[in-house]
Amino acid sequence: MPRLITAFSNPLVKQVRGLRDKKQRRLEGLFIAEGLRILTEAREAGFLPSILFFNGAEPPHPLLRTLIEQIEAADGDVIETNADILGKLSGKDNPGTVIGVFEAFPTGLDRLDRASADLWIVAQSLRDPGNLGTILRTGDAVGAGGLILVDDCVDPFSVEAVRATMGALFTQMIATAPWEEFLPWLRSAGGELIGTSLNATLDYQQPRYRKPAFILVGNEAQGLPPAYEGECDMLVKIPMRGKADSLNAAVATAVMAYEVINQWRR
Hints:
The chain is an alpha/beta fold. Helices cover 37% and strands 21% of the residues. A 7-stranded parallel β-sheet has the order 8-7-6-11-9-12-10, sandwiched between helices.
């Protein structure tokens, strides 16, 4: 049976609100996901929040009722609250009607099953949570195995990043590693590392891509470091016909991913 919490001073409200801070998320091993769609995606992928807050003033959606039943059956904590508390937890003026608290996933490279997919996406020093979310959604769309975040990237468990994934956080594998760890891991079992770079002379549609393929995109502002480009099996570029000198990192990732899988489809 849900319990009612409407006080900002409640210790649980303070604890969950603290999860908007990266240091606190790492300390507690928890993160927040907001919105019925995202929580439903999570449930369908086999993930249930340990704590659920929902707006008791809204008529309960059938999906919310199902979610509540399954969380209670798993001995989770279901909290009925109001829009003010939800806004405090999410940091938004117009919060969703539900917020879930999940246990953070381990993000070591050793948890990736390389044989599970022919295509993987690798992002180096990615800083924008919107780009991270779009790249994860692209990976889900093309059937990629997951996303490997190299070096100092945006936290995939931040409120903004989780929101931007629209549920793909729960359907795509995520790993994090410094370049010095990622490269030996990649070379230990093979795989074609395809770097995207404005310095490349090879058009992205010219090569015939082999399986498994690892698409590597760099930082939004700086691109890939020269040393990283030198480790790629090939460097390709997407032609720019207008005045813009480059595409957004997430858009470039999508263009590359669909080129690779379309070649394999043909």
